[in-house]
Design a protein that fits this description.
Shape: globular
Radius of gyration: 18 Å
Number of helices: 6
Helix content: 25-40%
Strand content: 25-35%
Order of helices and strands: EEHEEEEHEEEEEHEHEHEHEEEE
Structural class: alpha/beta
Number of domains: 2
């Protein structure tokens, strides 16, 4: 079991080399920088970590690649690390599946670790033409794979309840509803309130409203967009309710990275009667601008 036991935050502009992060032996990062904040984390981790390892999950082969070494995702992931290593996960650059399976490895090996996330100053969510409005927000494009159930978390969807953690992109909820992979009996939603900045939650509500009405979501929960601790509690309550009703719970992390971290954390701790759905979107280059707040969550394994 893994749990957050410390949370530090600071403005990126105020961070010195040792203000928020000490030295690390290993930093796990995504394949490449796509905006100002992933450029920032890349440069910063060069200063505070001895080694950076690039991580990528390949769904067709169900393998996690770490610096080009393919690790099959199975019930017991075959990967070894020294227990005294100081480890940092750059969730800013990593996608949800990579975070999930790194968490799984650390839990399996009983290794504590830190997670870094940097909020952007702004998102590039302006309408592309005069005919478009907020509902056209696209920070990413639908991927070729579409929504898929992730290895280790595949169970029948019939009679299941799906909780979608929502972000700015309403098309992602639409892709779940239209997917042939899912045949759930009911949907719920979670919206990040408050948002990273005042008013940003209104974009999430507006951008998803058409899909919420189409899907027929009447059960909406809220949790801070940058708060994985309370989001974990909301998910736990849904999970307990599903167990009481004897139905599976499906989770779809479509929103902010901190809420996705909560999903990964909860899934590692509760692997039964739970399924995870991810839509493998393609993030756009320059999808955000600037850097705002850096969060550092310290996870302890029990």
């Amino acid at each position: 079991m893994i749990r957050i036991h410390d949370w530090k935050l600071s403005r990126c502009s105020a961070i010195s080399e040792r203000e928020i992060i000490q030295e690390y032996d290993i930093a796990y990062v995504g394949p490449g920088a796509i905006d100002d904040r992933t450029n920032w984390t890349s440069d910063y981790l060069n200063k505070v970590s001895s080694h950076k390892h690039i991580v990528h999950f390949d769904y067709p082969t169900a393998t996690l690649s770490i610096d080009g070494i393919d690790i099959p995702i199975s019930n017991q992931i075959d990967f070894q690390l020294k227990s005294n290593l100081r480890i940092l996960v750059d969730s800013t650059s990593l996608a949800f599946p990579e975070i999930l399976y790194l968490f799984t490895i650390f839990d399996q090996l009983k290794i504590s670790f830190d997670v870094l996330y940097v909020q952007p100053e702004n998102y590039d969510d302006k309408p592309r033409s005069e005919d478009e409005d907020f509902s056209s927000t696209r920070l990413s494009e639908d991927g070729m794979l579409g929504p898929k159930l992730l290895p280790r978390y595949v169970i029948p969807s019939r009679k299941a309840h799906l909780l979608a953690l929502l972000g700015f992109e309403g098309h992602r909820l639409a892709s779940l509803y239209e997917s042939e992979v899912l045949n759930v009996s009911s949907y719920g939603g979670l919206i990040g309130i408050p948002g990273f900045k005042p008013g940003w939650e209104n974009k999430t509500i507006y951008n998803n409203m058409q899909q919420i009405n189409t899907v027929g979501i009447k059960d909406i929960d809220i949790s801070g967009a940058n708060d994985p601790i309370y989001t974990y509690t909301v998910i736990e309550n849904k999970y307990n309710a599903s167990k009481y009703e004897k139905i599976p719970l499906f989770l779809a992390p479509l929103g902010t990275k901190p809420t996705s971290i909560a999903v990964a954390n909860f899934a590692v701790n509760n692997p039964t009667n739970l399924s995870l759905v991810y839509d493998f979107v393609q993030k756009k280059l320059g999808r955000s601008t600037g850097t705002d707040t850096a969060h550092l969550w310290s996870f302890r394994c029990k």
